[in-house]
């Protein structure tokens, strides 16, 4: 199966405060600096990940649950020094209360809850699922595997966008899609077909015929992100 690194992700952030709203961008970068610039200050960031019992969901949730809130922002502020020197020992780095708190859904009803996931969400309706999403700071939908997840992810970002008037704090929506949305893209240079695409080339991508719904979900994520001004 494809790895998380082989996927294209699209980010959209929401906030009821116009000063805090950002336009959608085409790569989920550092989430930490949006929530906690000072890592000495403990803060709980609740993250939703769909299908944590699938390959992609398991890896995404595991990485998030093992990450300290604000750690990436701190490394970026330190610049190259962060790469040349080992990180200082810190009691906080081992404090689970300062890590992302992951909740999620499962693909199989009898699936066991991974040890790093705090809660498996069982919802019988979209209204219940929306309530869970509204309680989270970050919503991660991977549409790489799992029937019905493309439609559910598209529904989720649309309904969250519709709830802007009642959202009181910033929320980040990340859609992790398949690299096959680039499968039919024309090479940048016909004479050098091995030249790699860059992030800025996302408008040129052409999907495999079986992944047209995936690219539609990507475009919706970007579109709604750009309408949050």
Automatic annotation (TrEMBL):
Positions of region (Disordered): 76-98
Keywords: Kinase, Transferase
Superkingdom of origin organism: Eukaryota
Gene Ontology molecular-function annotations: kinase activity
Name of the protein in its database record: Adenylate kinase 7
Organism whose genome encodes this protein: Geodia barretti (Barrett's horny sponge)
Lineage, highest ranks first: Eukaryota, Metazoa, Porifera, Demospongiae, Heteroscleromorpha
């Amino acid at each position: 199966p494809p790895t998380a690194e082989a996927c294209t992700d699209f980010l959209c952030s929401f906030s009821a405060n116009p000063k805090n709203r950002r336009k959608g961008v085409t790569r989920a970068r550092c989430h930490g600096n949006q929530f906690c610039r000072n890592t000495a200050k403990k803060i709980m960031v609740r993250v939703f990940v769909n299908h944590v019992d699938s390959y992609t969901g398991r890896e995404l949730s595991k990485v998030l649950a093992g990450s300290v809130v604000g750690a990436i922002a701190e490394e970026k502020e330190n610049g190259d020094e962060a790469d040349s020197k080992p990180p200082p020992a810190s009691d906080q780095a081992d404090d689970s209360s300062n890590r992302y708190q992951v909740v999620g859904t499962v693909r199989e009803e009898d699936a066991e809850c991974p040890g790093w996931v705090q809660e498996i969400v069982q919802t019988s309706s979209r209204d219940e699922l929306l309530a869970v999403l509204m309680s989270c700071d970050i919503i991660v939908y991977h549409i790489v595997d799992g029937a019905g997840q493309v439609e559910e992810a598209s529904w989720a970002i649309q309904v969250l966008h519709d709830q802007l008037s009642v959202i009181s704090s910033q929320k980040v929506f990340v859609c992790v899609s398949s690299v096959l949305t680039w499968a039919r893209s024309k090479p940048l240079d016909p004479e050098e077909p091995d030249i790699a695409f860059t992030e800025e080339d996302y408008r040129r991508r052409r999907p495999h015929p079986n992944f047209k719904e995936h690219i539609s979900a990507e475009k919706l994520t970007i579109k709604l992100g750009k309408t949050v001004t």
